[in-house]
Amino acid sequence: MNILYIFYYTILRFIRDRKGFMSMLLLPVVVILVLGTALSSTFKHSDISITPVAYLNLDNGTASNAFNEFIKLEDIEEIISVKTVASYDEGIEMIRNREVAAMIYINENYTQNLKNGGTGDIEIIKSQHSSFGASVVSSVIDSYVNAANAIEASGKLGNFIPQFSRSDSVKKMPINSTGRTPTSMDYYSVTMLVMTIMYGAHYGIDELGKDYFESIGQRLKSAPIKSYEMYVGKTIGIVITLFLQALILVLFTKYVFNVNWGNNLTEVLFICLILSMLSIGLGVMICMVSSSRRKATSLISILVPVFTFVAGGYFPIDNVGGIIEKIKYISPNYLAQRAIFNLVYEAGAQETQFFLLIMVGISLILFITSAVAGRRKLQ
């Protein structure tokens, strides 16, 4: 019964503090509006244009002529636009002037080297200013080289005569990306929601910290309330309070900003509840271990922006590689964001469940650690 009373009055005290309650909601709403509007063009889709490429062939043999026929195929011309140049320097100059994404170069000994059993190299000089275009050119050349190697290997089998039939390996189907990829408003509604919940760790620090490390903590030792009752009641109260703020933020962005939260709003809110538990557990654990509200508050103020950054909360940073690519998986923000995005855009149920299990596991570890540390403080 004591747990229920503590739980009830904890929530009531937060709700009565209208200024603090609303300020926790006002900041993310403003940030979502500003970033969602200012960076809207970043999330718009654009068509992939044909990649321009310079081409220099100094060989007049049969092998290079076969490549000439290859780049004139209709399917290839839909991908790259070949511009024949008269010299190597001319091609390099076009790359420097950003007229082409790369240059394809075949030297004068290409066919002869192949006849002598050597290697025939098709060189690609890439532009540093068009990495995507250069990768397109590389893919085209790789496809030709792989096919040529397969034919050569078949010919070495002796009496085996390869037979080929032309067929399309890719079936073209028009797709509509509307509602399947996030807009800037959708993206920042998710990331700022997650960041707001993580900042809720301050609730755990303030509520549990003052009961354990201020004068009221001394009174608790002589009060007819067990330490676990105070811990459980307060913890549940602040978790539900933080979850209510997340609920308000989700509903506000859904109906005011027209944010797409998918067809499983209940499951999105469940993720918010799990993250609320993790956030409060993190705040309480740091407070109990550090034995100082001030130290815990300072540490959370550092950790949350770092978690948000490595998770791509301020701007998308997918596939950046390096240390950020490795440490983002320990960021609660990343786990929650991926779980929500996967759920909203139906990107993978198994991955969503995996992220949720990790979040639940982290929450349990945090609460167990804080409970053990808190019990020692009261003894």
TrEMBL record:
GO cellular component: plasma membrane
Domain ABC transmembrane type-2: 154-377
Similarity remark: Belongs to the ABC-2 integral membrane protein family.
The keyword Transmembrane helix is assigned to this record: yes
Keywords assigned by UniProt, alphabetized: Cell membrane, Membrane, Transmembrane, Transmembrane helix, Transport
Pfam family for this entry, one: ABC2_membrane_3
Any GO molecular function: ABC-type transporter activity
Membrane-spanning ranges: 187-205, 236-256, 268-289, 296-317, 354-374
Bilayer topology: Multi-pass membrane protein
Keyword Membrane: yes
Name of protein: ABC transporter permease
Lineage: Bacteria, Bacillati, Bacillota, Clostridia, Peptostreptococcales
Localization in the cell: Cell membrane
